[in-house]
Amino acid sequence: MEKKDEKKIIKEFTEKSYKYGFVSNFDSDTIPKGLSEQTIKLISKKKKEPKWMLQKRLEAFGILKEMPPPQWAKLKFKEIDLQKIIYYSAPKQKVSLKSLDEADPELIKTFNKLGISIEEQKRLAGVAVDIVIDSVSVSTSFKDKLAELGIIFCSMSEAVKNHGDLVKKYIGSVVPPKDNYFAALNSAVFSDGSFCYIPKGVKCPMELSTYFRINEAGTGQFERTLIIAEENSTVSYLEGCTAPQRDENQLHAAIVEIVALDSSDVKYSTVQNWYPGNKDGKGGVYNFVTKRGIAYRNAKISWTQVETGSSITWKYPSCILKGDGSIGEFFSIAVTKNYQQADTGTKMIHMGKNTKSTIISKGISAGFSNNSYRGLVKINRSAKKARNFSQCDSLLMGDKCGAHTFPYIDVKNNCSIVEHEATTSKIGEDQLFYCNQRGIPEQEAIALIVNGYCKDVLQKLPMEFAVEARKLLEITLEDSVG
Amino acid sequence: MLKIENLHCEIEGNSILKGINLSIGSGETHAIMGPNGSGKSTLSSVIAGDESYEITSGSIQFLGKDLLDFSAEERAHLGVFLSFQYPIEIPGVSVSNFLKTALNECRKANDLPPLSARDMLALMKSNLELLQMNSDFLSRSMNAGFSGGEKKRNEIFQLAMLEPKICVLDETDSGLDIDALKVVANGVNKLRNNSRSFLIITHYQRLLDHISPDHVHVLVGGKIIKSGGPELALELEKNGYDKLC
């Protein structure tokens, strides 16, 4: 990139409120837009996949063709034309990298702009990072150190090639292609993502982290993440997302599957900050994601999410509590402003005895936005003495936004306990005046009040992520009261 | 230090203050007494910069500046402090975090560097002692689930932390039992000095038994109808407001 361009980028940066709206000038390998069997074969070929993978993709495509797009969420958007999307785009990368030193300097610059200075993280936090730009994973750090413990942390493409047995056994086992429209789409065209395998009895010594970025215009990102935690293993996984500012809507349809075997503990944290569109609601990412984990005996799956980006978010990280004594948790902060729409929540499916689930959802709506919590707590007949506690709070800023709660509760036995609490509040003039009187200006006061409101969830995030999330909340809500 | 001249204000078209004149010198303590609805709390809100009231005429001078030109937070930075009659709850925000933010914002506005975490904690601890408060208090959510007495102590604790120049105490005695009243009054007395002034708003003499004012004013119907020394408060307690009106 020339210096001039860089200056321009920096200027754009400082002038616009969405901090990650830059475009990087990589040389990309991009296929023509449109979806057909041909496209799927081309993707599979580009990725040098084995036959069984192509077979799975084509099956999923067959299912997709029979399915109508979902209509039931409380969202308004134009129907997505699947033929107008580019399904594969990759920064041209010579060979796979052993260390970051070999990476394209342009990539390193991009990472630095994203504020995820890898060097820094490596040194300070010991976070292993996998980065996915558009369709492919471009770098995975710390691989050697993890390999010593038998942990596999690599891109999905590599996993398909090198760990075919594991992928074949588990992919689609938690979220089958027929699950929903976007799951079918992803299963047919997914391009990359992260794969993580923790062997029996191993506690992963560092946070594993993936950074997703859509760069190329008109591309969709369809990443696929699969986490397998063997018996008695522990892992904490982080995911961050950003995208350039573009006038058209970009589609992001991902799948995350977690398999938590007996007595394992998986924590999955997301800070989602895709481009939310401009203040008039133009552009932004459509974020249609299926995330689900299955917990076997005494296993625990914990989802924590901070959702501030995307023009539309449609996402319900869920837990199937299959084994006796398994635990599911969902902690969520969803912020919408301008014309953003979020329809998010969770599903807790209790099947085993003595299963427990906790749901804490904090919605914050500002501007003309709409923020819905949609959650299902299902307790099957077999789930004796199951317990659920749900708390759904909504905070409104201004009087043109909306907050909605749709809790579905379905209990099929009479020895389980389900509790649901919900509150709606407004940031009050009196709270702001109180802060002002103590010398705290309005923006700082809002940040303080919102952070206080979200505290229960923020404290569930890993330390370095919590700091980032807090800052993100502050930036997102600037000028939101009025 | 503070000079209020011919102050008129209204809210939603109702005129509340109808020509207040009040002058408070450096280091002086004034008390304003008056019946319900006389405009006492309105006066304190207006001094602090609550924008729900409209100033229709008059002026407030503070240290030679026209206070009405400044926003609420700027007034705080200049050294105006209001102890609220009904302190506001801010769930999830700890007392220590709130005060750290407030104090550092005030310091920033006065070109001072932020206090180090260590100095901040030391300052908090010494002020907690002043009000006979436990250090657990610092990690509790701001006023959330506090008893009436705890809320009032928290107000004076903030006063001690922020070291303002003019302190308006709006019915600080309401909701306090006798022991708590003594603790709060002792705290206030220790915070009095030659460069800090107090304006104490109250219904009753009982707070003034512990904090003796230099001047007492009687506010009725949006006007100060009588001013005098500490003996005026005793007279009011004995005879009620009716005799004066």
What does this structure look like?
The complex is a heterodimer of chains A (482) and B (245). Chain A is α/β, with parallel strands linked by helices. Chain A is built from 13 helices and 24 strands. Chain A has helices at 3-15, 37-46, 51-65, 105-113, 118-124, 143-148, 156-162, 164-170, 181-189, 429-437, 442-453, 455-458, 463-476, and strands at 28-30, 89-91, 128-133, 136-140, 152-155, 194-198, 208-213, 224-229, 234-242, 249-252, 255-260, 265-272, 284-295, 300-307, 312-315, 318-321, 327-336, 341-344, 347-350, 356-365, 370-379, 387-396, 402-411, 417-426. With 245 residues, chain B is of the alpha/beta class. Chain B has helices at 40-48, 72-78, 95-109, 117-130, 148-162, 178-191, 206-210, 231-239, and strands spanning 2-11, 14-24, 29-33, 54-62, 65-66, 80-83, 90-94, 141-142, 166-170, 197-202, 215-220, 223-228. In chain B, the strands form three sheets. Chain B has a six-stranded mixed β-sheet, with helices on both faces. In chain B, helix 2 crosses helix 3 and helix 5 (148-162) packs parallel to helix 6. In chain B, 41% of the residues are buried. At the A-B interface, helix 10 and helix 11 of A face helix 2, strand 7, helix 3 and strand 8 of B.
